[in-house]
Amino acid sequence: MIRIGIAAVIATATFGTAALAAPATPSANAMKVCGAQYQAAKKAGKLPAGETWNQFLAQCRGGAARPARVAAATPARAAPAARKPAGPPSAAQKAMYERERQCGKMWQADKAAHRIPANEKWPQYWSACNKRVKG
User: Fold this and answer.
1) pLDDT tens profile 110-119
2) For the segment 76-106, what is each residue's pLDDT rounded down to a tens digit?
3) 62 plus 101 within the same structural domain
4) What sign does the CA torsion over 40, 46, 50, 55 have?
5) Rounded Cα gap, residues 59 and 54, in angstroms
6) What does 72-104 look like in DSSP terms, one character per residue?
7) Which of 15, 66, 76, 85 reaches 20 to 30 Å from 45, CA-CA?
8) Do residue 70 and residue 97 come from a single domain?
9) Count of domains in the chain?
């Protein structure tokens, strides 16, 4: 009886260790690799006309020659520090920010006064308010 219990513990430990040593799921890894290859091919204009992501993924997962060819064309990704910083907001962006602040104040006031319909959320309110304020 004790031998069976010890054997069960050893088997559980062995299988548990094997499970921990296994890499992440192949499908998740394939999604990352194939996704990067797809974006690179799309950016470089190397995708055949009309090819969809699902078609590309099926070929990529199937191990066709295509992923290796696209992987070679994949450019190195720029470091975040090397990216061009965003400039100051334009006049149109500043006006939109001001309208958003105005509508936010109106939203809070209407919400406090219970004038917001039950099914209306901020995005719908903002859309309608932006149109009204923009005029």
Assistant:
1) 999 999 999 9
2) 555 666 667 788 989 999 999 999 999 999 9
3) no
4) negative
5) 9
6) HHPPPPPPGGGSPPP-PPPHHHHHHHHHHHHHH
7) 85
8) no
9) 2
